[in-house]
Design goal:
alpha+beta, four-stranded antiparallel sheet, 8 helices, 10 strands
Length: about 260
């Protein structure tokens, strides 16, 4: 029924009786099922690479390194080499300036028109964008959490500190959001230690939070409005890896190239 033409009334057509069993049939490629999500992603990636080739005159094979891919070294933004950031059915381009962006957008539209694909342009060139709770400022080259997300997490921490008790599961939810929030400046995660033990010890039970837990939440609350990632800075020469065990805490450092990380 869901896949039928919207002008068709099933009961008027007389094709469905009250005692009939009706089976749904999706008339679209369902996202997340089998290989469909991957297929959409690969199709869009191919179209964007074709547009980059049309725009720059370079072979499509040479434009493949302009694609922003998961678990791959990110491409470098350069003049005449826009970054291609496909996401299933959303084509995102990151270009050097407005002129470069307009140029590759025109090429992309030509490719879509040639394939007979329908599309809509949801926005023109922007110097900033919001995505998955993050505020990406391309002009200042910074990444921070959105004001709405910042306000919500700050309020949640304030409430926990005020009531001084909660279940382990409640604290786990808040700290989970906290971990995502602090990814813009991962060193801030070091303020969390005793909270993990409280979560493990109490689970669904409501309990008074020890002073150490409240102190960590207070420090975390103070950091929430301050954290920002400066993408304009060059990667450091040293890489660090830390871990802990029953014998204590370990920190390993090594001098590596950014491409090795």
């Amino acid at each position: 029924f869901f896949s039928m033409d919207t002008e068709l009334k099933a009961h008027e057509a007389g094709i469905i009786e009250p005692h009939d069993t009706v089976y749904t049939c999706l008339a679209v490629l369902p996202m997340g099922w089998s290989w469909s999500l991957w297929l959409c992603q690969e199709m869009l990636t191919g179209l964007m690479v074709e547009a980059a080739a049309d725009c720059t005159g370079r072979p499509a094979m040479a434009c493949g390194d302009q694609v922003l891919r998961d678990r791959h070294l990110p491409p470098k933004l350069e003049l005449h080499r826009a970054i291609l950031a496909p996401y299933v059915d959303n084509a995102n381009f990151i270009a050097w300036n407005s002129e470069e962006l307009s140029k590759i957008m025109r090429s992309f539209k030509r490719v879509l028109d040639k394939k007979g694909l329908a599309y809509r342009v949801e926005c023109d060139d922007m110097k900033e964008m919001h995505s998955v709770g993050l505020w990406v400022d391309l002009e200042r080259r910074t990444v921070r959490n959105t004001p709405k997300r910042t306000s919500r997490l700050h309020s949640a921490l304030e409430q926990l500190i005020r009531q001084q008790s909660c279940s382990g599961y409640t604290l786990r939810v808040v700290i989970g959001h906290h971990c995502h929030f602090f990814m813009v400046q991962r060193s801030a995660l070091s303020v969390l230690s005793r909270v993990w033990a409280f979560i493990e010890e109490n689970g669904a039970n409501v309990a008074e939070m020890p002073y150490e837990v409240i102190a960590e939440l207070q420090v975390a609350r103070g950091l929430v409005p301050l954290l920002v990632h400066n993408a304009d800075r060059a990667p450091g020469e040293l890489a660090y890896m830390s871990d802990s065990s029953g014998e204590g805490y370990a920190l390993i450092e090594a001098r590596v190239e950014p491409s090795e990380i």
